[in-house]
């Protein structure tokens, strides 16, 4: 069994026996990472203690929950490898997962980010997603989530950004853009990072033969929980404001405002009016800080407006089941 210049970072918060399974799958990789780094966000379920007993695993205990974004950044600070792979505790990679991501990176030296084919754990043939889609309104979703795997899903292609539940990054690219935005805590932070990488001139690729089986939102109550709705829909606003470049920002701003109004109505009808209003209010309160970040991001932008327009999803009626 060979090793490669990759650090695998697993951010854990009460991952329980999911973390045990994740680390067991990592131990069976055909190509082993140089280091497996578990960043523990103050778990109280014994998962961090068990991880410390796994050979080759380094556990860093933060003592409290800093969130997914900040915890990964703490991991980045310890990395000295060419590549950094992120893996969620509820994502179980197949034996050649890491080898295939690294092979893709070596075959495409001008691409900085590589995403996996995520399958729904326990449901044969159902996609969890093959990368994130960014709609021109500012809505984001996981491409292909919830549908049956098709022939087209076995073709490598460019994606807007990978889902950080199972992805490989060139470390220097992460350093250059400053890693994750820690104000996000969690949700949409990977899309924001992917957007900033694109603005810096980098591209992302979907690697279909790098397969993980993903439980999804295992520790946050599910994708429709109040926690997920709050963070996801607050962070959508900041991602659009910070990153949408040049004239596209003003051209698409009415669409983004409409999206936010529609989501308020939608979640209110679902009985989550209080949480969606709180999310949008906190997003508005954070706009001065987001705008200050925008100035820094846009002044160093390498990608042209045309290049960003090319990779946005421009369908008037977006389909979460993929293209």
What does this structure look like?
It is a single chain. By secondary structure, the protein is α/β, with parallel strands linked by helices. The protein has helices at residues 16-27, 47-51, 68-78, 97-107, 171-177, 189-199, 226-243, 246-269, 273-285, 287-299, 305-311, and strands spanning 2-12, 31-40, 57-61, 83-87, 91-93, 113-120, 127-129, 132-134, 140-142, 157-159, 166-170, 204-214. The strands form two sheets. Strands 1, 2, 3, 4, 5, 6, 7, 10, 11 and 12 form a ten-stranded mixed sheet that branches. A two-stranded antiparallel ribbon has the order 8-9. The mean pLDDT is 94.
Main traits of this protein?
323 residues; Spore Coat Polysaccharide Biosynthesis Protein SpsA, Chain A; ten-stranded mixed sheet; two-stranded antiparallel sheet; 12 strands
CATH topology of the largest domain: Spore Coat Polysaccharide Biosynthesis Protein SpsA, Chain A
Main beta-sheet annotation: 10 strands, mixed
Report the average pLDDT across residues: 94
Helix content: 40-55%
Question: What is the count of helical runs?
Answer: 11
Q: CATH class of the largest domain, please?
A: Alpha Beta
Provide the domain count: 2
Radius of gyration: 19 Å
């Amino acid at each position: 069994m060979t090793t490669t210049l990759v650090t695998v970072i697993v951010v854990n918060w009460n991952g329980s026996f999911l973390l045990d399974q994740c680390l067991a799958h990592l131990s069976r990789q055909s190509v082993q990472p140089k280091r497996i780094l578990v960043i523990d966000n103050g778990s109280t379920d014994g998962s961090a203690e068990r991880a410390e007993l796994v050979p080759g695993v380094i556990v860093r205990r933060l003592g409290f929950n800093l969130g997914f974004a900040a915890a990964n950044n703490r991991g980045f600070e310890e990395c000295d490898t060419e590549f950094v792979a992120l893996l969620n505790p509820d994502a179980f990679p197949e034996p050649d997962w890491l080898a295939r991501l690294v092979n893709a990176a070596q075959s495409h030296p001008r691409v900085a980010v590589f995403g996996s084919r995520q399958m729904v754990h326990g449901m044969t043939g159902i996609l969890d997603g093959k990368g994130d889609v960014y709609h021109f309104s500012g809505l984001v979703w996981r491409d292909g989530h919830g549908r049956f795997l098709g022939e087209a899903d076995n073709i490598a292609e460019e994606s807007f950004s990978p889902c950080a539940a199972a992805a490989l990054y060139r470390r220097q690219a992460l350093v250059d853009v400053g890693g994750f935005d820690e104000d996000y805590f969690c949700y949409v932070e990977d899309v924001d990072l992917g957007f900033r990488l694109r603005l810096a001139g980098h591209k992302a690729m979907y690697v279909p033969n790098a397969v993980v089986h993903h439980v999804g939102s295992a520790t946050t109550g599910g994708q429709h929980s109040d926690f997920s709705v709050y963070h996801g829909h607050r962070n959508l606003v900041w991602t659009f404001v910070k990153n949408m470049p040049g004239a596209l920002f003003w051209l698409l701003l009415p669409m983004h405002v409409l999206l936010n109004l529609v989501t308020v109505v939608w979640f209110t009808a679902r009985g989550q009016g209080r949480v969606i209003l709180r999310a949008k209010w906190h997003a508005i309160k954070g706009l001065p800080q987001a705008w200050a970040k925008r100035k820094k991001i846009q002044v160093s932008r390498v990608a042209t407006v045309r290049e960003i327009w090319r990779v946005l999803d421009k369908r008037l009626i977006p389909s979460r089941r993929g293209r």
